[in-house]
Design brief:
By secondary structure, the chain is α/β, with parallel strands linked by helices. It has two domains: 1-34, no CATH class; 90-276, 3-Layer(aba) Sandwich (Rossmann fold). Helix content is 38%, strand content 23%. The protein has helices spanning 64-89, 111-121, 145-154, 175-190, 205-217, 242-261, 267-276, and strands at 3-10, 13-22, 25-33, 47-49, 54-56, 99-103, 125-130, 163-167, 196-202, 222-228. The strands form three sheets. The chain has a five-stranded parallel sheet with strand order 8-7-6-9-10, with helices on both faces. A three-stranded antiparallel sheet has the order 1-2-3, with no helix packed on it. Strands 4-5 form a two-stranded antiparallel ribbon. Strand 6, helix 2 and strand 7 form a beta-alpha-beta unit.
Length: 278
């Protein structure tokens, strides 16, 4: 029985076909050997094997040059954030109002500078704001940051006619916002209509203070801000000290919360705050 072996090449696929002649009839017995490692592509461009359990797709990836470019961009952005975040948070942008508000929790070494800001800015009145200090036991004990700041300012030449403490006795939640509400209530109680105020804060807390005072007073009052330097670290190299890192990172998170996630107080909360303001 003669056998004719024929090699057929079609594309990258090779077939060996054995043709067997017997009794005038030709029986074809194909044997398939596949050299192509890529299975047939589906209509979607995906290549599947083992009944679709494995799928092969083409994808783009970065070359070493691309990875180097991405690395340089990431390093540049990180450097820009490190160098620019402190000036952004510790902003100074006064509006030269008739009233200056000093946050009473600032470092005691900065009260002299706050008094000098009052004189240089030709303000009519200086208000000190603050919540109850940790050593206070009950409202009325005079152990409040507002009263404390007023006493400190008098040591630097400020008089009782120039300084007015505005204490707030909310201690656990949204303290900056509630002290701003206390200052707003003081103006309302005195019947004083204002269209602008300047607030003195310290270091990277300044940006958040300006934001929360603006939220408290509303769009009808323009809130300016003056940032006094924090004496516990170098603001130009804040990342070199634990105090600077803690302040900048903490204030960045707090500012983002105040900017995007701050829950506005309900009317009941405002009424409760009003009772705690003297």
């Amino acid at each position: 029985m003669p056998v004719i072996n024929r090699l057929v090449c079609k594309g990258a696929q090779f077939k060996i076909t054995s043709l067997v002649k017997s009794e005038g009839m030709i029986n074809a017995m194909p044997t398939l050997f596949t050299a192509d490692p890529h299975p047939q592509a589906s209509a979607s461009g995906q290549r599947k094997v083992f009944g679709g359990l494995l799928v092969r797709r083409e994808r783009w990836s970065l070359s070493w040059r691309g990875r180097l470019v991405v690395l340089c961009v990431v390093v540049a952005l990180a450097a820009a954030v490190v160098l620019g975040i402190h000036p952004f948070l510790a902003v100074t942008n006064p509006v030269h109002s008739d009233y200056l508000v000093v946050e009473g929790w600032i470092h005691y070494q900065r009260f002299e500078q706050a008094a000098q800001e009052f004189r240089n800015g030709h303000y009519k009145k200086l208000l000190t704001s603050g919540v109850q200090r940790d050593t206070a036991t009950k409202p009325g004990s005079k152990d409040n940051y507002a009263d404390y700041a007023a006493e400190q300012l008098k040591d630097f030449g400020m008089t009782d006619d120039q300084v007015r403490p505005v204490p707030c006795w909310v201690t656990h939640k949204d303290r900056t916002y509630n002290t701003a509400l206390a200052v707003k209530k003081w103006f309302e109680t005195k019947g004083i209509k204002i269209n602008s105020i300047d607030v003195v804060s310290e270091g990277p807390h300044a940006r958040r203070s300006q934001l929360l005072y603006q939220k408290a007073f509303g769009s009808g009052v323009h809130v300016g801000i003056i940032s006094l330097q924090d004496p516990t670290y170098d603001p130009d190299h804040w990342w070199r000290s634990s105090e600077g890192v803690r302040e900048v990172i903490g204030e960045t998170v707090a500012y983002l919360y105040a900017k995007f996630c701050f829950p506005f107080l309900k009317e009941s909360s405002r009424a409760e705050t009003a009772e705690l303001v003297k």
